[in-house]
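Table S2 (continued). Query chain:
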Amino acid sequence: MEILIPVLIVVGLAVIVGIYLWATYNSLVALNVRVDEAWSDITVQLKRRADLLPNLIEAVKGYAAHEKAVFENVTRARAETLTASTPVDAGVAEGHMQQALKSLFAVAEAYPQLQASQNFLQLQQAVVDTEDKIQASRRFYNGGVRELNTKIKVFPNNLFARNLGFSEREFFEVVDGAAIAEPPRIQF
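Corresponding output:
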């Protein structure tokens, strides 16, 4: 009987530790899946924007065909966005895309006839709507990354989370925020 009490205590502690590990593992898996889902949402919105851009460029080209550099920058930024596979790559591409779109819209503002075009206005509204969706998806993704990274870093999870195959994820941030803060320079 005397040996039974210590054995029960050890077994009870082992059960508690096992339940804790099981619950922590499952919550890490759920957070990891949530971050993957959020990244997928971002890529869907980036693809949607990339699909809208050729139509927007064609609408503007009809009025401002001599703005070749602006169109090339948008096309290059679009290609960069489509090939980005990590949050860091996407952040760099996003900075370039924002600069290119600002320049494109600045060119469009110089042409009142273009501003009156229903097709252009619809395309512009679709791009603005997509930009809002990208920002929302980005906030959701970064929130999931924050939760996952915090869960991995806190004690005692930091003792075993990496051994279970979980690693910290990168935030999706625009790499050169100062560059997109400047207004575009358009010369005619």
